[in-house]
Write the structure tokens for this entry.
Amino acid sequence: MENFILFNNVSFSSINEYDDTKTEILKDINLSVGHGEFISVVGKNGCGKSTLSKHFNAVLVPTGGDILIDGINTKCEEKIFEIRQKIGLVLQNPDNQIISGVVEDDVAFGLENLGINRYTMRENVDKALKSVGMYEYKNSPTYTLSGGQKQRVAIAGVLAMNPECIVLDEPTSMLDPSGRKEVLDTIVNLNKKFGTTIVLITHDMEELSLSGRVLIMDEGSIVSEKTPEELFCNSHLLNRYGLLPPSSIKLLYNLENEGYKVKLKSPDTEICTKEILSLLEEVKCRR
Ligand SMILES: Nc1ncnc2c1ncn2[C@@H]1O[C@H](COP(=O)(O)OP(=O)(O)OP(=O)(O)O)[C@@H](O)[C@H]1O
Ligand SMILES: [Mg+2]
């Protein structure tokens, strides 16, 4: 696989300034992500997901090991703009990301630091707002937007920089079902249509099925790397790391425990539904 993003033995420790004690938050992370991949990251609260996300675009730099983005070391301070143009980070809470009072000013904010001309800036902002379906709100005050709309404006702010990769830290955790759908559709569209590399941090097991690869984190380490299919069929891993599969798969596990011969479990709800229906059919035939 082509190494667009490469974490080599990355660790991150924070030092308590009062008593000088050291806490290791990330431990020996090795990771490589290719152009156009869609990966997801799960793990219990406090296992280090947000700390990991901030390492992708040099908001934090490793205290041990190295991170290379297209061959550029994130410790190289003079390349920080280049890295942040390649990798955009969307924070969990859009209120922490939205800075300006008007939608289009907010989306333009990151571009202003790049010193590009006003015409290109206008073009980038309009394109970014259109791709998240928020163009008609470009003159709206940001305080009037819903949570889902704010999150899409935050994504547009990152998109306007034309990044090759977007890292999203639990972007849907504060959203209602329709806001969640808006944001997920936007992410999937970016990956499928424009080949944008996606790193999605989530607690939502259904969202994992959007990705090609799932990383499980525990106590600062990556402890497993599986496809969604492999993960959902591995009850040992699910139990060990306290991951609850989507409800359709949970139902198949329950049926299996009741003695039914379940042939497959899939992250695709439709496939699970077909399996459940065929089990019901078998039961009917036996009667
Ligand atoms: N700046 C910091 N200084 C000291 N400890 C920190 C700092 N930032 C995070 N931590 C600690 O590091 C650990 C990992 O935190 P992090 O926020 O990365 O976890 P997380 O997996 O994102 O959790 P959540 O699922 O709740 O969002 C936690 O124990 C947290 O308390
Ligand atoms: Mg977090």
Q: What stands out?
A: Residues 14, 23, 25, 43, 45-51 surround adenosine-5'-triphosphate (ligand 1) (CB under 6 Å).
